[in-house]
Amino acid sequence: MEQITIERATITDIKKLQEIGRNTFFEAFAEVNSEENMKEYLENSFAEEKLKAELGNKDAQIYFAVLNGKVIGYLKINLRAAQTEKLDLEALEIERIYLLKAFYGQKVGQLLYQKAIDVAHEIQASYVWLGVWEENYRALKFYEKNGFKAFGKHSFWLGDDEQTDLMMKKQLVNDNELKVS
């Protein structure tokens, strides 16, 4: 397989982020949600102004997985006040890891995940947390394999459909736990 690079997105990457965000979310969830709810979510969540605000937030970081010049996935992490739940300002939140379906099972998600762990190490976070839809079995398995444990739930609205996200976290207590094998 060609070399995949992890590159930080900047304010000039709005169109790329919009495209990869909409495509990966659609591929992951269109089959199990209504067309109306998907359309509303994709329009609102990946609107240019919203993405401009995310890319301009000093406490949020977005990274692309790039293969041969093409963005094939992305990671969004939130620090301090950018976290979607204010659990612990010293923690790091993984808000999104999404890949194009063609790259599932090829360790691209693991590369993006490792980038999040590297940033958590840099900021000396005590733990990493995330929310994942309780019916996204593939993602749940991925996070459990990487040492995450469920600790709560919160609601996620997709259009007019209230869904439940499991909140999961992984303690980062020593350097040995920061490296993914």
Describe the structure.
- The protein is an alpha+beta fold and 181 residues long.
- The protein is built from five helices and seven strands; from the N terminus they run βαααβββαβαββ.
- The chain has a seven-stranded mixed beta sheet, with helices on both faces.
- Helix 1 packs across helix 3.
- The protein is globular.
- The C terminus is likely disordered.
Descriptive labels:
alpha+beta; seven-stranded mixed beta sheet; globular; disordered C terminus; about 180 residues; 5 helices
Write the layout of secondary structure elements.
Blueprint: E1 4-8, H1 14-29, H2 35-45, H3 48-56, E2 60-67, E3 70-79, E4 92-99, H4 108-122, E5 127-133, H5 137-145, E6 149-158, E7 161-171
Parallel strand pairs: 4-5
Antiparallel strand pairs: 1-2, 2-3, 3-4, 5-7, 6-7
Summary, kept brief:
The protein is built from 5 helices and 7 strands; from the N terminus they run E-H-H-H-E-E-E-H-E-H-E-E. The chain has helices at residues 14-29, 35-45, 48-56, 108-122, 137-145; strands at 4-8, 60-67, 70-79, 92-99, 127-133, 149-158, 161-171.
Radius of gyration: 16 Å
| Residue windows where pLDDT falls under 50 for at least 5 positions | 176-181
Distance between the termini: 19 Å
Q: Describe the global form.
A: globular
Share of helix, binned: 25-40%
Q: Could you tell me the number of beta strands?
A: 7
Oligomer: single chain
Report the biggest beta sheet as strand number plus sense, adding barrel if it closes.
7 strands, mixed
Q: Which strand-content bin applies to the residues?
A: 25-35%
Secondary-structure content class: alpha+beta
Mean of residue pLDDT values: 92
Order of helices and strands: EHHHEEEHEHEE
State the helix count: 5
Read across the widest sheet, the strand sequence of neighbours is 1-2-3-4-5-7-6
